[in-house]
Amino acid sequence: MSRDFGWNDGYYTPAPPIAVSGGIKAANARGAFAKNWWGRRWIQALESFRIGARLQRGRSYARSGQVIGLDIGVGRVTARVQGSRRTPYDVEIRMRPYTDAQWERIAGALAGQPWNLARLLGGEMPEGLEELLAKIGLPLFPTEYGDLVTDCSCPDVSNPCKHIAAVFYIMAEAFDADPFLLLRLRGRDRDALLEYLAPAAAEQEREAPPEPEPLPADAALFWGDAGDGRSAPLPEEPCGLPAAPAPAPAPAAGRLGPPPFWRGERPFLACMNEICRAAAKRAQEQ
After folding, report:
1. What is the mean pLDDT of residues 55-75?
2. Distance of CA 282 to the CA centre of its chain
3. What CA–CA distance (Å, rounded) separates 241 from 244?
């Protein structure tokens, strides 16, 4: 253990960190560190390890921009954090990446979930991915602190120290901005992952479509064919009132939910229902 600022005959006296210009400062000065579910889950996982006091000390470092460098690679994160001495501390965080065989299991599991696979190929992080990986015994996030191997060049004997904790929070915001950094830590960067999952998507496209359900007995009336080549007349409504619209004219939109790029002031499903009703009315009038 080297003698450092704040140390006096082997006893540590807390000293304020040296202010940094141009450090990686947390986006939010207060409140939550991440907005998206995967960034929040990273923080929740860390907070579940009962290292709250140490995390709190690192939180102020992250907010004040004491982290001055961050690199997230396959299974390894390196960072530099400015503390109370002139030379920044070196921080290393390691997390075991998935093996090639484990990635094969992931690709196979995703092949059976076209919605999650499509969202990944579209550059999104589907919420169902965490549950899917947990079911096949490959948790996306650390489940105990032993899943992380951390080291800091500071003289603090606590692990994690506040410098490591500060990097944890900056990692959450990095994941929040680019969820594929989390998957890179697990062994596949964005391009490699999308290339890896492409065969699973191609296999889904090769699958034969399901057999259509048999048409109802009154299919001729439904399609407007009276059976002799003439269009069957539409049934008249009592009192001349139009037929009541279907309660769910856009069932696909209701099942899939709003797209991530939706920025409308009104709810997505309400807009889709209105468009479908208008289209149905126009088709009926023509």
Report:
1. 91
2. 40
3. 9
C-alpha dihedral sign at 246, 249, 251, 254: negative
**Which structure tokens are listed for 240?**
């001349």
Q: Which residues pair with 162 in a beta bridge?
A: none
User: How far is CA 257 from each of CA 121, 160, 253, 269, rounded to the nearest angstrom?
Assistant: 18, 40, 6, 7
The 10 Å Cβ neighbour count of residue 63 is: 17
Q: CA–CA separation, 163 vs 81, rounded Å?
A: 6
What type of residue sits at position 252? A
| Closest-CA residue to 94 (of 138, 159, 40, 162) | 159
Query: Quick check: helix, strand or coil at residue 90?
Result: strand
CA atoms within 13 A on the CB side of 197: 23
What's the whole-number average pLDDT of the chain? Answer: 76
Amino acid at 277: R
Contacts 24+ apart (CB under 8 A), 138-144: 138/98, 138/102, 138/105, 138/106, 140/182, 140/186, 141/41, 141/42, 141/45, 142/45, 142/46, 142/95, 143/45, 144/49
pLDDT at residue 144 is higher than 80: yes
- Whole-number Å distance between alpha carbons of 21 and 129: 38
User: What three-state secondary structure class fits 11?
Assistant: strand
Residue 100: alpha-carbon gap to chain centroid: 22
Query: Measured between alpha carbons, how far is 156 from 169 in angstroms, rounded to an integer?
Result: 19
Rounded to whole angstroms, the Cα distance separating 206 from 110 reads 16
What pTM value is reported for the model? Answer: 0.65
Residue 197 belongs to what H/E stretch?
helix 190-206
pLDDT at 45 over 90: yes
AA identity, residue 185: L
Highest mean pLDDT among 81-85, 215-219, 253-257: 81-85
